[in-house]
Specification:
Number of domains of chain B: 3
Radius of gyration of chain A: 20 Å
Mean pLDDT of chain A: 86
Low-confidence stretches of chain A: 1-6, 297-301
CATH architecture of the largest domain in chain B: 3-Layer(aba) Sandwich
Number of helices of chain A: 9
Mean pLDDT of chain B: 88
Shape of chain B: globular
Oligomer: heterodimer
Largest interface: A-B, 76 and 91 residues
CATH topology of the largest domain in chain A: Rossmann fold
CATH architecture of the largest domain in chain A: 3-Layer(aba) Sandwich
Structural class of chain A: alpha/beta
Number of domains of chain A: 2
Radius of gyration of chain B: 24 Å
Largest sheet of chain A: 6 strands, mixed
Strand content of chain A: 15-25%
Helix content of chain B: 10-25%
CATH class of the largest domain in chain A: Alpha Beta
Order of helices and strands of chain A: HEHEHEHHEEEHEEEEEEHHH
Distance between the termini of chain A: 44 Å
Strand order of the largest sheet of chain A: 3-2-1-4-6-5
CATH class of the largest domain in chain B: Alpha Beta
CATH superfamily of the largest domain in chain B: P-loop containing nucleotide triphosphate hydrolases
Largest sheet of chain B: 8 strands, antiparallel
Number of strands of chain B: 23
Number of helices of chain B: 8
Shape of chain A: globular
Distance between the termini of chain B: 45 Å
């Protein structure tokens, strides 16, 4: 190979990823008339909030934040969500799966069925209510096989459906976020990030996180090979995941690698109580992020793809 | 920054792999991920379960890369997939494009963001029509570094003579199409299945003294580091927080965008195109930080000395490097849509952050991607590549694609469906 004298020093990988994400956020703001940023209080969406600050300050965000609440979220995360939105001084919209249940648009097969997949219904209802033409989310291509072919600007039809065979080609950094009324774009600014990139960015930017990401003592039981938190207090005072007859409660030191609906997010054994230790643990982990911790992805090889076709994020 | 033993990649390389189903492309990617320890235990368990179900004796590494249900059912890949791995010194993004003839558009898509292409050749079959097609497309889309990986060396008994002949054949062809003169081409014998010369050398090919594939990837220059480019800053968004409670911000006017090429420093004289207003850079901001200068691929906010009316779609350039906006362009276009190009219709061209209505002036000729012959043509169907001229309603600030991949590229949008139907590279 001929030796090239570098005219410019390349950006570090984190700087490059950050710059790409800022660019995508600004494209959404430039191309869409009524976008919204989906914000759960989880680590990926906290990175996106930081990126939005870098993209739009000293101005306000050109979009509100929105959380689709299953009603079965960890209280620590909900509190953190509200605190973060208040600190930023940005508008937070919360729409709840329980409201959809009351309207009759979400019907659970049983009281303890996971509400995670039903978020799609509530999300579509909220999109219609506010007339959003673009939802910004924190999904990453490395999370799951069905996501590896996801576009950065992903097109959804009037029913919120994702058709893998009918996605717009995406070339260079020329993103096409155009949509007709009723259609929708899902924009993923951190598509090209891995779990490790997210943790390194959190470490570099010194981002605060909900406490359940760090190692803590928790009552759990072993159910079907997974660690399942039990007797979890909810924001409304109810208890989620009550222990079942015959189960032994174990008090374990755990942390969460992903945060979602209580019924489908399992913690992992860990003593990582700082971001530095989490980065180390992530580097040496032998299990994928969703593999051990997302009970909903394990149903079949194609379950994420199925949910996405139905309008899931 | 704190010091610990986790990987801190100091750069990022985007590359693509070109090959057909039988070339072992999926196996190559699977092997790179596997040997760089990116595949974790649970994924491997799932892969071995699936391999067993299909009656295979060993874990099929290609399972890692065929993602969608529809593809698994058909046993082929139908769309570009992106994969990630990291070595601790570098983060890699792989664009994995299927190589069938009917998927020219996928190859062009994958190539558009890649700085290096691995072109796979089956050691038993040598340089084929598809090899020519992949090479031509990689050349057309401006990939700087070509790695010709002669795969399945295990099936020709790791024979050096077979390898040498394929290299000579390829080089002759590459000279013919101008690729050898314009690009950095390297050759490497590998076996993706056995793992020879990917991450580990193994000991089957002592006659090959060159670098392993991973060593080549680790040393390949990242994008924009090899030549001096003009400063190009398409404005994405204008920040005017005049309603802010902070009185100091009432006159704030920040031009937000990503530096597509070149460098800029505080004090530099700039021109805002297409209007030609001139000013100087007052400040460069990234988040809370004020920078003295900024470089290619950084997303920043520029503040200018003078109050200039500027909006999304304008382009800030250095006054010394300003170029003339144009209302006619000549380009190689790859058609991406199942609906053929209509010369009677008006399309939208998106170039950087700017859009213009466009009409086809003339289709000059079509390129047969297999024979590379030019053919007269009046139509353009999916996967066709043609040289076309467009007339524009709005002036665009373009460079030739060979000089600047960011400001030489555009997409064609069908206004009725909003679909992206074409990819253009300005001549």
């Amino acid at each position: 190979m001929t030796t090239h004298t570098s005219k410019q020093q390349a950006l570090s990988h984190l700087d490059w990823l950050e710059s790409e994400a800022i660019y995508i956020l600004r494209e959404v703001a430039g191309q869409c008339s009524n976008p919204v940023l989906l914000f759960s209080g989880g680590k990926d969406s906290l990175c996106i909030l930081r990126l939005a600050e870098k993209a739009f300050r000293p101005g306000r965000f050109p979009f509100p934040l929105m959380h689709i609440d299953t009603g079965h979220n960890y209280k620590e995360v909900i509190d953190f969500r509200d605190q973060r939105a208040a600190e930023l001084g940005e508008r937070l919209i919360v729409r709840s799966v329980e409201d959809s249940m009351q309207r009759g648009t979400v019907v659970l097969k049983s009281a303890d069925e996971s509400r995670n997949k039903h978020q799609s219904v509530t999300l579509l209802e909220a999109i219609e209510e506010f007339g959003f033409d673009c939802c910004i989310g924190g999904a990453r291509r490395d999370e799951e096989k069905a996501r590896a072919k996801e576009r950065i600007m992903s097109f959804r039809d009037e029913f919120g459906q994702w058709d893998p065979k009918n996605q717009r080609p995406e070339l260079w950094n020329l993103y096409n976020a155009r949509s007709h009324k009723g259609e929708n774009i899902r924009a993923f600014p951190i598509s090209n990030w891995t779990e490790m990139d997210v943790w390194q960015y959190i470490e570099r930017e010194k981002l605060a996180l909900p406490s359940i990401y760090f190692a803590h003592q928790r009552d759990v039981v072993m159910r079907g090979g997974s660690i399942v938190p039990v007797n979890v207090p909810l924001v409304n005072g109810d208890i989620a995941n009550p222990v079942k007859a015959g189960e032994d409660i174990i008090n374990m030191q755990v942390r969460f690698r992903t945060v979602g609906d209580i019924s489908c997010t399992a913690p992992v054994l860990s003593d990582a109580d700082s971001i530095e230790k989490i980065v180390l643990e992530t580097a040496t982990s032998t299990i994928t992020e969703r593999g051990a911790t997302r009970l909903d992805d394990q149903t079949s090889d194609a379950s994420m793809e199925q949910r996405k076709k139905e309008g899931y994020f | 920054m704190t010091t610990h033993h986790t990987p801190h990649n100091d750069s990022l390389l985007r590359f693509m792999t070109c090959g057909s189903v039988d070339d072992g492309k999926s196996t190559l990617i699977g092997r790179l991920l596997f040997d760089s320890k990116t595949i974790l235990a649970d994924t491997l368990t799932q892969m071995s379960r699936t391999s067993e179900k299909r009656g295979l004796s060993a874990v099929d590494l290609s399972l890692l890369t065929d993602g969608l249900q529809a593809e698994r059912e058909q046993g082929i890949t139908i769309d570009v997939a992106y994969r990630y791995f990291s070595t601790g010194t570098r983060k890699y993004i792989i664009a994995d494009a299927p190589g069938h003839e009917q998927y020219t558009r996928n190859m062009v898509t994958a190539a558009s963001t890649a700085n290096l292409a691995i072109i796979l050749i089956d050691a038993r079959r040598g340089v084929l029509t598809q090899t020519r097609r992949h090479s031509y497309l990689a050349h057309l889309v401006g990939i700087q570094h070509i790695v010709v990986a002669v795969n399945k060396m295990d099936l020709v008994n790791y024979d050096q003579a077979s390898y040498d002949k394929i290299c000579a054949d390829y080089l002759a062809f590459a000279k013919e199409i101008g690729l050898a003169q314009a690009r950095d081409i390297r050759f490497i014998p590998i076996s993706a299945l056995a793992g020879d010369m990917l991450v580990d050398r193994l000991d089957n090919m002592d006659w090959y003294q060159g670098e392993t594939l991973l060593e080549i990837l680790e040393k390949a220059p990242a994008a924009h580091t090899e030549s001096q480019e003009a400063f190009r800053f398409p404005v994405q968004f204008v920040c005017r927080p005049h309603a802010s409670a902070d009185a100091e911000l009432h006159d704030y006017r920040g031009f937000m965008g990503r530096i597509e090429s070149g460098e800029i420093a505080v004090g530099d004289a700039v021109t805002v195109l297409p209007n030609g207003y001139q000013s100087k850079v007052k400040a460069i901001q990234l988040g809370e930080a004020n920078l003295h200068s900024a470089k290619t691929e950084q997303s920043v906010t520029l503040l200018l000395e003078d109050e200039i009316d500027t909006s999304r779609g304008d382009m800030i350039v250095k006054t010394s490097e300003a170029h003339e906006p144009v209302k006619q362009i000549d380009a190689f276009v790859c058609w991406l849509s199942e609906t053929p190009l209509s010369t009677a219709r008006t399309y939208i061209i998106r170039h950087t952050t700017r859009e213009s209505k466009a009409k086809v002036g003339a289709i000059q000729y079509k390129v047969d991607v297999n024979t590379l012959e030019q053919q007269a043509s009046s139509d353009l169907k999916m996967n066709d590549i043609a040289r076309i001229s467009f007339k524009l309603a709005q002036a665009l600030m373009v460079d030739s694609y060979s000089a600047n991949r960011a400001t030489g590229a555009f997409i064609v949008i069908d206004e009725s469906t909003n679909n992206t139907v074409g990819a253009g590279m300005i001549v």
